[in-house]
Amino acid sequence: MGHNRAETKRAAMRAGLVADRPYVAVGAHDAMSAQLIEAYGFDAVWVSGFGVATMTHALPDLNLTTMTETLAAAVRIDGATNLPVLADCDNGFGGLSNLVRTVVEFERAGIAGICVEDNLFPKRNSLYNGSSKRELVPPLSRPAGSARERRPRTPIRSCWSPGWRH
Fold it and tell me: Which of 43, 61, 88, 90 is catalytic?
């Protein structure tokens, strides 16, 4: 059975993450910057929550953008490049059921991977005031919970705990 574009990108991301060299994902805030990242030979494209909030909506990075707004930005960026796209999904856009829906929607859209923070909603952005104010939940509880709900094809990365969940 042949691989579609999304499966090919996911396989490339998984292979890069276990390779013996650094796997470099560079942040893109739009389709053009994703094309520049590809042209300069980087491994993957990072779609940051900060970038979506500030560059697309001129909002601070304080959970003011929705899952669907972040997904739309990731889909536009993904369509502009042959590189795998890794999307910052903050803390899953709410509770566990929101996280499960986030995994389903990003997987359905063909995004190569997502990054989910182990912290409570709403987030406390560490860029403001110079120190982290994150309140951590038990390690991997939210990403692992979403993986238990459904075995996604999209890699889920917990920003605060080691290990990939399949």
Answer: 61
